[in-house]
Amino acid sequence: AQKVTQAQTEISVVEKEDVTLDCVYETRDTTYYLFWYKQPPSGELVFLIRRNSFDEQNEISGRYSWNFQKSTSSFNFTITASQVVDSAVYFCALSERRQGAQKLVFGQGTRLTINP
Amino acid sequence: DTGVSQDPRHKITKRGQNVTFRCDPISEHNRLYWYRQTLGQGPEFLTYFQNEAQLEKSRLLSDRFSAERPKGSFSTLEIQRTEQGDSAMYLCASSSGILAQETQYFGPGTRLLVL
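The joint structure predicted for all components is written out below.
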């Protein structure tokens, strides 16, 4: 069965520090997709990134970067020079393809607090 | 594009009452998903529609739950005879295009509290 583990339940850092959110996944599929979503206090899940299993190239988008390592089944997310607005719950998710759908299997989330 | 919208945003009900939630997907998105999120947990898949057809239901969806998507546009999720364990955030997501390139876009959710 598909499983996503985010071992860090809560992280608290001071503004401008770099922070890395860990994500480890389990799957038997040879082709799969990984995602990161941000959930601010308003509750809406905001899409951040989608990564295909056959593309292990790391990605950088502004202060955000993602490190995908298939060998260790990890898809970690780093925020550089964190800001208070980055405070939210972050979810890593793995797609499970069933009957023409991509069901998302989410981790438990990491609550990130950036203190001024 | 207007994003996914959900109504109501909050619902408080008494145990045993029926409730109905509505989701309006992004225009022309043919796939629609419902997820449930309890406090401190990640969302869990409930059910999925391709156009108007409900193609899969999770075992989490007991017979008190029913979902519809008439005409392949908006969707409703009804919970009959609510129980306190139904208290959760109900999230709707929509997507379109090639499945291999799919990204699900979520609405703001409906937060249900059963007293």
